Amino acid sequence: MSFSAELKELVRSRTDIVQLISQDRLVVQKGPNFATKCPWHDDGNPSLMIYPDRQSFRCWVCSDVGGDVFSWVMRHENVAFPEAMKILAERAHIELPKLGDKEPDEVRRQSAVYEALKWAQLELHNFFLKSPEAEVARQYVKQRGYNDETINKFSIGYHPNDWEWFIRRAQKQFDLETMYEARILGHKEESSRYYDQPLFVDRVVFPIQDERSRTVAFGGRLIPGRSKDDAAKYINSPESAVFQKSRILYGLPQAREPIREEKTVLVVEGYADCVACHQHGVGNTVATLGTALTETQCTRLKAFAPKIVLVYDSDDAGQRAAARGVGMLLGQSVDLRVLNVPQGKDPDEFLKAHGATQFKEHVANAQEAWEFRLNWEIKNNDVKTLNGREKVLTEMLNLLAKVPKLEGSPREALILGRLSSRLRVTEADVRQQLDRARQAGSAAVSQIRPAPVVVPVVKPQRKIDFYNKPLNKDDKLESEFIEIIFARPQLAERLRTEVGPDDFQNPDLQLLLQVIYDVCELGEEPTFQRVMVQMEDLELKGLAVWVSEQGRQKGIEQKLAEMTDGVPSLFKQNIDTIKWRREERNHQEALAKEALRVDGPDIDPFALLKKATEFHQKRATNRR
Asked: Virtual CA dihedral for 289, 295, 300, 301, nearest 10 degrees?
């Protein structure tokens, strides 16, 4: 699948890289540029720089991470260029040409699944709003206190008590297999019969969307009084190719802007509490889907805000869930807190009784996750006894031993000091027991030897090994040649007549120069943005950003202001050096061929020496 340069440029020009990256990460301004924490390494400080004027980004800690808006989507979403193009075009409301049979079957099937899910969401929402059969659902939602704005914001729907409602309404719009892949339908293999998923039937339905606002699943809530034998109050769609509940956070698209404003994200236990929080003006709230917050979800959230507050009911079940939930998250470099909603209420009940102001005050004073877990262990063990203190210490140290990111960190030292103080044990003894717990854990892991998890990665067309070694003088010369072009693209035609890609020795820079000249061949000026559009390879895009920023950091634009014979002095000097290098290479090759000649008159070594001396004298004279 190929796209024209004009179409790629249109998509690029309609996409602001700062807005694109800030959709998923907390971005801070640094002078004319912006910075964020790099998602591809454990970044304690923002080291990924965003350059609005060039519409590019680069992490200066990672050796090979950089590029443009296409590169960001390719890396962040783990997709190839065509899919990145689609994502950005959709975001910019640009319709791409239909690719027909050229589109891979897998891509077509997944697109159909998303379309079916979007269709189902609209059908359920419209039925909820307009059908007399949905009056019971509207009354229930009204009793929950949801207003029209909230209902539309979360596209709340209703499915009637009909096991073939979707099948009839879809008609020929979607085939049954696609609807089954979307988990809109269930399937009995023994009878080959399709039916509407049980989670929908006679339930209020909450669409579940991913971070790109695509519907990927649904949650169904049983309406009180419409009893069903052993039916669960809440039920989610089965997992599918587009829905893994351990990765999705309900309400994230709606919460993104409030999270940025508050610099805090609240995580509640289900979509009903999440919607209630938004209804009461606490819009920086998301929900897990029947599981504790996972490391994957936590990593996702800390890109939006530096503070995460887990909100749990204050009953025993809520306390246990909170204690379990914080375990493997302690190693995350984020301000992680736990709030047990007071007075035995869930967030919805508390907000109705006391309002958003008091709720936010409790959020602001939420305990640190580590402190919460320690207090929970102390509450459940009698620390007045040696046995009780030993149990608490063992539990906390076993927890710490499972968090490798904490080992040797300042955070670990603070935690150990706190343990020592609260349990009246010397810090040296605490440290020694932690070392033993880690050794025991390592031994257990080595015996189990779990199968490695294989994560699919979009492989670049080529691997550039340019950043992991010191640059020699030839690399610096060739890099500067391209820096000059990016700073003054109008000079490219003149440069092209003097220096060709074959004059470059570094194969990576040679390939980048060829792309630049390809743009010239199209009759266009090879600006940085135009060259980036010409390329689809991640590695080459990253190299272009690196070269461009090298030039800007050393002030290449200012250096080009000094003129000699009507042209920039640096420009002339660079060309002359590369040309002399070419002549020297040709000269060395000619001498080598002459020295190896076996036919003709005998070789005069003094004549060869004379030729070499004359060449270097000529070069020295020209340099002066």
From this structure: 80
Phi-psi region of 344 (alpha: psi -120 to 50; beta: other; left: phi over 0): left
* Distance, CA of 455 to CA of 489 (rounded, Å): 41
Coil/strand/helix, residue 478 = helix
User: CA-to-CA distance for 459 and 457, rounded, in angstroms?
Assistant: 6
Tell me how crowded residue 31 is: count the other CB atoms within 10 A of its CB. 6
Question: Using one digit for the tens of pLDDT, what is the confidence trace for 327-342?
Answer: 667 666 678 899 888 7
Side-chain half-sphere of 583: how many Cα atoms within 13 Å? 14
* pLDDT band per the 50, 70, 90 thresholds, residue 202: very high
Strands 48-51 and 56-59: antiparallel
Please, are residues 72 and 57 in contact by the beta-carbon 8 Å criterion?
A: yes
Q: Express each pLDDT in 434-474 by its tens digit.
A: 888 888 765 443 343 333 333 333 344 456 766 666 788 88
Task: Tell me the C-alpha distance between 73 and 20, whole Å.
Answer: 9
Tokens 């891509």 correspond to: 107
Position 179, amino acid: M
Give the E-state strand segments of 332-399 in sequence order. Answer: 335-341, 367-368
pLDDT at 98: 65
> Bridge partners of 56?
51
152 contacts: CB under 8 Å, gap ≥ 6: none
Q: Are 346 and 316 in contact (CB under 8 A)?
A: no
- Please tell me the distance from the alpha carbon of residue 520 to that of residue 523, in angstroms, as a whole number: 5
The neighbouring-strand residues paired with 109 are none
Size of the chain, expressed as the number of residues it contains: 624
**CA pair distance 529, 66, nearest whole angstrom:** 14
User: CA–CA separation, 525 vs 516, rounded Å?
Assistant: 9
3-class DSSP state of 550: helix
- Judged by DSSP in three states, 467 sits in coil
- Residues 596, 600, 603: CA angle, nearest 5 degrees: 55
8-state DSSP, 132: G
C-alpha 404, offset from chain centre: 23
pTM of the entire structure?
0.67
